[in-house]
Amino acid sequence: MKILIINPNSSAEMTGGIRAAAEAFAAGDYAVLCRATPGAPEFIETAEDQVRAAPGMIALLREHERDCDAFVIACHCDPQLDVLKEITAKPVVGIGEASMKIASMLGHRFSVLSASERSIPGKEALIRSYHLEGYLASVRPIPGDWRSEDNVLAAARAALREDRAEVIVLGCAGLAGMDKRLQERLGAPVLDGVACALILAAGLAKYGVGTSKSGRYAMI
Amino acid sequence: MKILIINPNSSAEMTGGIRAAAEAFAAGDYAVLCRATPGAPEFIETAEDQVRAAPGMIALLREHERDCDAFVIACHCDPQLDVLKEITAKPVVGIGEASMKIASMLGHRFSVLSASERSIPGKEALIRSYHLEGYLASVRPIPGDWRSEDNVLAAARAALREDRAEVIVLGCAGLAGMDKRLQERLGAPVLDGVACALILAAGLAKYGVGTSKSGRYAMI
Amino acid sequence: MKILIINPNSSAEMTGGIRAAAEAFAAGDYAVLCRATPGAPEFIETAEDQVRAAPGMIALLREHERDCDAFVIACHCDPQLDVLKEITAKPVVGIGEASMKIASMLGHRFSVLSASERSIPGKEALIRSYHLEGYLASVRPIPGDWRSEDNVLAAARAALREDRAEVIVLGCAGLAGMDKRLQERLGAPVLDGVACALILAAGLAKYGVGTSKSGRYAMI
Amino acid sequence: MKILIINPNSSAEMTGGIRAAAEAFAAGDYAVLCRATPGAPEFIETAEDQVRAAPGMIALLREHERDCDAFVIACHCDPQLDVLKEITAKPVVGIGEASMKIASMLGHRFSVLSASERSIPGKEALIRSYHLEGYLASVRPIPGDWRSEDNVLAAARAALREDRAEVIVLGCAGLAGMDKRLQERLGAPVLDGVACALILAAGLAKYGVGTSKSGRYAMI
Amino acid sequence: MKILIINPNSSAEMTGGIRAAAEAFAAGDYAVLCRATPGAPEFIETAEDQVRAAPGMIALLREHERDCDAFVIACHCDPQLDVLKEITAKPVVGIGEASMKIASMLGHRFSVLSASERSIPGKEALIRSYHLEGYLASVRPIPGDWRSEDNVLAAARAALREDRAEVIVLGCAGLAGMDKRLQERLGAPVLDGVACALILAAGLAKYGVGTSKSGRYAMI
Amino acid sequence: MKILIINPNSSAEMTGGIRAAAEAFAAGDYAVLCRATPGAPEFIETAEDQVRAAPGMIALLREHERDCDAFVIACHCDPQLDVLKEITAKPVVGIGEASMKIASMLGHRFSVLSASERSIPGKEALIRSYHLEGYLASVRPIPGDWRSEDNVLAAARAALREDRAEVIVLGCAGLAGMDKRLQERLGAPVLDGVACALILAAGLAKYGVGTSKSGRYAMI
User: Fold this and answer.
1) Which residues make beta-bridge pairs with B113?
2) 3-state SS, residue C66
3) What burial class does residue D180 get, using C-beta atoms within 10 Å of its C-beta: 0-12 exposed, 13-18 middle, 19+ buried?
4) d(CA C20, CA C14)
């Protein structure tokens, strides 16, 4: 089994981090191929960034449609998830949808940590589109530099205490790799989207089910 | 890795069917232990049936808490899921929650096929408790004998055509084993709860996350 | 007319308090029989506590099904309400459902005072299951010892001021008897679940209506 | 104890029917005073009808505020319920709110039978304002002459079979008196609003609670 | 084209302010007629105030039904909007509904500034009746004298910062005229209800559409 | 004042129809510029079609950002509305959002007529994203050739009768021009998205308000 992980931005560094986390999680059970999106912005923050990533993402999926068994979109705002679900009948999993739906199975409410304040309203709209608003404790911005693990920890602690979150969702693929250390320090489940998406992508591929082609995602 | 599948009823026949489906799905990737619940009714239909199954289910979980890595409740009404999530920090997955949350990722709306008309309102309440009512096309009773694959097919076809369902969820563990043949005949994804629950139970165990112990499911 | 009040825990002290409040409220208009649940925990806090109370509660109801006209479950988390509604066609009223639905008729939003922080998420899930989340100002924990009337008053004041609650619901049968003094001091309605449940149980028995047996609560 | 029942229309015949049903229900446990509204239309159907009834309803309440212990508005669209709740601190109960909130305690879903097709959208808006839409099976018009018990029965049967209602709510005060015969023939609970409102009005008056004066219904 | 603006209260001063704002906005593109409501209270704050305004509002609409092309209700609680929509087939626009639905098109969430704390719960109920609660950041009371522009500014700033509002809605017709200065100082859209209602009333009249007469607002 | 209408597809015929309808509606009150989108598909039906239209739409907006006062997206699925709202501070109005929010002001519930069955689930998701699901009677496919006015009429009649719609929304820009004739034949309001969007775009431009730049649509 081989899973293509599409990083919707063009950052080699971020792609490397995602690849490392994905390979560590897959642990040889299946192959993972991790690719940056050609022509996409360096970081996905705005709605325009998301559509600018679209052509490259579509091209990557089409290039690998035959040789891969499932596809992961490795940006927590799940850019173009609807488009890719439409293009192929094989499983396509967004790290946002995967991590938040799994979070809803592990506790009463979850919080999402966001790399930027700017992304919060968009994340709220995404959460509502997944009918998850009733499970949401908060979308919390990481104060200061979001790459600092201490800052992420501070946001997570605030979510647990002030918002009564019971599960923490890392709201950016760039945070991949911090989950286990944070979970240890917090004493509460911490979910990285890439790991969650791989659970579902590999599981669905194994099970032999994919996106329904009989309605919203029908091919024409 | 070893996963305990608790069949909340005491039927040896149904337990055998679930075990066969589970072992076929696991395909040797991990061990599955499938147990009927001592002292439980032969079939779970009413709310009283669910509480009558509770002591045996709790005993099974406690007996295997150490040697198993995750737990599956193999009845589509997810009896005592809250109780078992509370008792252990390891993953506990209900086949109802697992199959319906996965269904929500594969299409716009799903239908659940129910073995009995009597169970429909209870299933609706369960679906709402998972915040999935916005994804629901219908809960459809299987006409006539629910063990007949043709009857299940008829209900599924009606759900696709009349209710605009895009994904079919088999709403009873007793239907395990029919999924692939039905999917072939329908041309739409058909989800068996046991397979869906194993995807999540094995994935969560591999990932090292379980139910949050910091709020609703805290141990005292 | 005779109403059986089932205290789902086994505490004689709490049963005595509930009995005293109930008899004072009934004021001779009808008889009330108040019983602790044999085999149940001393206090109901967790989901497991609730199922451990089930066998004794079912036995109490069956023992008195003929000679009583209505049944009240006197724990604010309404344990096994669905089960008891299913077993008998006579009215079964939970003090949680009764007090919160009455609260929704007396003001724009209500707050529930909770004896323990641990119970808050479970209460929130219960409130949603009654479709009352739109009426909810907050579930507030009583700070310190929940048996202290001053602590209850402090939580109620905070709910009125900070959460803009307009009605206070005492979220534990153990608070029975404080309602009138608190109402006096607060200047806002304070509802005790036992009184609210008796209003409905006696009223429904007088009216000759009970749980519908044609769907969710049908007997088989 | 004395309860004033305000019939918001000016029909002497309808007032007589309501009075008879109310006195039969009260059965001497408390006094009921039943008054038609001076200056109101003969029948309340439109939004304009409702505001035309307002001055007379306010006058009736003010006239009896001291000598009555609770107030019932005997029209199923609950005209001016907010206004009367605002004017007095004593309990004010609308037959629509009372019957539908009680219905929500007796089954999974209820249907409301409406005397006119014209009233259906307004009833739906009212039901949503009470946060009861999740409990609603349907609002069904009574076919033909709504005063014919056979026609009401036909609508109720359709609601039970086609809409999966479990409880029937009579959606017009003019249907008072049919409840018991219909319940007998249907085998499912049938709720008359006047009886339901009296349960709550008498119960609240006995309990000594009324509308909160600390927010939405504060007097200025 | 001529638009009648009905100020539901009887204050000549407030009517003058509304007229000035409306004429400035219309800028000669169409005629505006602005009238206070005879027999109405000086200020609309309570539910009773709203029904006291009804007869005069109905009379004004009937007086001008022929010579005007559209009607605006210039009080942010939209008193009697349903009644006036029912009486005429021409467009009737409430400044509350118009401003809040337009706000929902200009940002993720809006806040409404309220002239009085007393009005907040009523405004929340109104917002829910328009299905806008998902767009609501907050209803904020203006601290101190609500006629002071600095106080309004303070409330708006708090809404933007603390409630993450992106659009400000002036929740009282008495604030008409402040919108442009506040918008300048805040750097975020500020909506006056009268301007918003005129956009829609004039637009609908130009388009030749009005309230549907085939259901909820049918004339009998 | 000048308004740019962006037709997100590349069909010259459809652009001509939209232009004609828009100019007729504007009636010289303001200038309208109507442009097809270079590089876009001939018809927008799928999610992929929508992203393929994005670059051309962005280019059109940027080309005209200075000389136009407001922007309209003339496809009923509102493709890239979020992106264009983000790019400019001037008003951007989608014909889907405009027509459906206006419909919500003219009746209890509206139906949307869809040119293709394939588009229904996507339209439902869009409607939910606007929080309009509570106002929705149905999304109805036009049977047979959607360009036939008789077929559109048949779908509208079914919506009024069977779904209790009170307002009809034409769910495709290609239906522009049929609104008045259909309204005449149906006796209920029929809304064309282009007219509705022009009402709002021209009104907002006149008012001097546009998309908030302080949150979800902030420029970076």
Assistant:
1) B140, B170
2) coil
3) middle
4) 10
Per-residue pLDDT tens over the stretch F152-206: 999 999 999 999 999 999 999 999 899 999 999 999 999 999 999 999 999 999 9
Q: What is the ipTM of this complex?
A: 0.98
Distance, in Å, from the CA atom of C69 to the CA atom of A10, rounded to the nearest integer, reads: 71
Cα-to-chain-centroid distance, residue B55: 19
Indicate the pLDDT class of residue B220, thresholds 50, 70 and 90. confident
d(CA E120, CA E142): 11
Residues in CB range of C157: below 8 A, 6 or more apart? C186
Q: Determine the distance in angstroms separating the CA of C130 from the nearest CA of chain B, rounded to an integer.
A: 10
* Contact across the interface for D121 and F109, Cβ inside 8 Å: yes
Instruction: Report the alpha-carbon distance of residue C190 to residue F83 in Å, rounded.
Output: 50
Interhelix angle B120-129/C120-129, nearest 10 degrees:
130
CA distance F131 to F109: 13
Dihedral sign (CA D17, D18, D21, D22):
negative
Residues B105 and B96: their CA atoms lie apart, in Å, by 15
- State whether the Cα torsion D156-D159-D164-D169 is positive or negative: negative
pTM (predicted TM-score)? 0.98
3-state helix, strand, coil in chain E (%, to 5): 50, 15, 35
- On average, the pLDDT of chain F sits at 97
Name the strand (E) or helix (H) holding D19.
Answer: helix D12-26
pLDDT of residue A220: 79
Asked if A80 reaches chain F (Cβ–Cβ under 8 Å), the answer is: yes
Per-residue model confidence (pLDDT) at position F220? 79
Q: Which strands, in side-by-side order, build the sheet including E167-170?
A: E136-141, E110-114, E167-170, E190-192
Which conformational region is residue E129 in: left (phi greater than 0), alpha (psi within -120 to 50 degrees), or beta? alpha
Token pair, residue D105, equals 């305690």
| Separation of alpha carbons B94 and E26, rounded Å | 61
At C131, the amino acid letter reads H
- The closest of B110, B155, B152, B160 to B130, measured between CA atoms, is B110
Q: How far is CA C211 from CA A88, C97, D166, in A?
A: 50, 14, 9
C54 → chain B, closest CA residue: B51
Predicted confidence (pLDDT) per residue in E50-105, tens digit? 999 999 999 999 999 999 999 999 999 999 999 999 999 999 999 999 999 999 99
Whether there are 3 or more C-beta pairs closer than 8 Å between D and A is: no
Q: pLDDT tens across A117-148, in order?
A: 999 999 999 999 999 999 999 999 999 999 99
Q: Cα-flanking dihedrals φ and ψ of residue A7, to 5°?
A: -85, 115
The span from the CA of B95 to the CA of B72, in Å, is: 7
Residue that has been written with the tokens 């790399």 in this structure? A115
The per-residue pLDDT for D220 is 79
Q: Which amino acid is at E210?
A: G
Within the 170-189 window of chain B, which residues sit less than 8 Å (CB to CB) from chain C?
none
Rounded-to-integer distance, Cα F208 and Cα C39, Å: 71
| Domains, chain D, ordered by start | 2-95+195-207 (3.40.50.1860), 97-192 (3.40.50.12500)
Q: Across all residues in chain D, what is the average pLDDT?
A: 97
Of E54, E129, E218, nearest to D51 by CB-CB distance is E54
pLDDT of residue A200: 98
Q: Which residue blocks in chain E are alpha helix, DSSP H?
A: 12-26, 47-64, 81-87, 95-103, 120-129, 149-162, 179-186, 193-207
Report the phi/psi class of residue F120: left, alpha or beta, with left for phi > 0 and alpha for psi in -120 to 50. alpha
Residue F8: is its pLDDT beyond 90? yes
Nearest CA in chain B to F128: B134
pLDDT, residue A139, reads 98
